[in-house]
Amino acid sequence: MTADATSVRRWPVRPRPRPRELALLAVVAPTLLLGFATLRTQQLAAAGTDRLTLGDPIVPALYLGLLFAAHAILTLAGRQTDQVLLPAVGLLGGLGLLLMERLPPSLVVQRFGPLELGLGSLQLLWLGLALAIIAAFGVLVRSDTWLRLYKYSWAAAGIALLLAVFVLGHEVNGARLTLCLGPVCGQPSELLKVILVVFLAGYLSENRALLASRRSRLGPLGLPPLQHLLPMLATWAIALAIVIVQRDLGAALLFFAIFLALLYVATARWSDVALGLILFVAGSAALYLLLPHVRTRIDIWLDPWAQAQGAGYQTVRALYAFGRGGILGTGLGAGLPQVGDVPAIPAVHTDFAFTALAEETGYLGSLAILATYAVLVERGLRIAARSADDFRALLAAGLTLVIGIQAVIIVGGNARLIPLTGITAPFLSYGGSSLLANAVAVGLLLALSDRGVALPPPPRRPAAERLVAGLRAAGDRVERAIT
User: Fold this and answer.
1) Residue 427 and residue 93 in contact, taking contact as beta carbons nearer than 8 Å
2) Closest CA to 138 of 61, 72, 92, 202
3) Which residues of the chain have pLDDT under 70?
4) How far apart (Å, rounded) are the C-alpha atoms in residues 235 and 201?
5) Other residues' Cβ atoms within 10 Å of the Cβ of residue 222
6) Staple partner for 465: which of 37, 146, 284, 461, CB 3.0–4.6 Å?
7) Are 236 and 196 in contact (CB under 8 A)?
8) What's the start-to-end Cα distance of the chain, in Å?
9) Whole-prediction pTM
10) Are 362 and 327 in contact (CB under 8 A)?
């Protein structure tokens, strides 16, 4: 066999072990298995069978198999990417799957031809696709050119997608957010948050120096050159206006926060933040006066007990759930996210997934979930700080903020720190479009963290050639020493 034939059959890259990722997954796996076993035992005890059991191992086994398969793919690819992102996502996704298995399957039922899937099975399906996206992006995305050069095209595609929802979408709970293609439905606003970050990163990286300069002032606040700020503001305002018209206030708040945070990251000007907050307060006051659904959300936030049996029912039930959980929680399966087959908290699987887990795991479990989100944010910001240029740094920071700000908004709404919005807890809540969009963000972060591919070692020369080369090198060293 010739040397050329041998090189063709060699693996194109050298597999690189990922010991930290494997060690963290080795902690995540028994944690989730213990959670599923505890849940199943509690369910049997409630049915009158008081015995320890591992329960049905199919769901956790499938999920952990997918998680370790993603790890194996990243290992074989040989890329030197971050080794903490996947375990953190795996833990959050596993906790979300645990909650969906705990809730009634009839909360969400989806048919794919003759196949009918309930809530837990659907969540497992979406998590599997999310892990596949993370692994695929982590292995295949090796250049950011397709994002960097077409920022306006991405922005136009995102706005066109939202307009399609406005015209062709389905209305759910008074909001037109969902677009359906056959049996599959999703919320394009979830994908738009990633598209918005790509556009902002591209525009800000190109105009960073100009935006950081000051040519006019508004009182004590310095203003960037409007001719460079207007294109970005126009694109952001169009997307925001469409979202507000569609009554998706959670996405509107998320978009505004991402825009303001990335503008500060690019310019390091606190005056931009101050001006943005002034505009936010003024806009919120106007929306409160003009839009009844905004007024209802804020009134519920201020005093949910005034409408405890009406519009404030969700918030009141969530506060009771936090109180029942206490410090250590009621135990997995022993909480009250449902009474019989009726959820005690409406939309518990989407808007209040964090509340349901907080009730059963307590404040300590809640802090652990928040700490996992903090780990994701820390790793993302570390990737941004180590990036080679402005675009990659802003892109990594923006993708990190998408997950971090979304988590803060939904957790704050659950705990009544801010008005409740309709967004989901990343990787915890049910929702295919949310899981896939957040998976795209994590996958891109994984690709951006790459520090190079380990190439396969060169083919070994025959022993005789190595001996001759060694003798020749020794002779050369002797000659240099003498001369």
Assistant:
1) yes
2) 72
3) 1-13, 45-56, 169-177, 182-184, 212-229, 231-232, 235-236, 238-240, 242-243, 245-246, 337-343, 452-483
4) 13
5) 17
6) 461
7) yes
8) 45
9) 0.85
10) yes
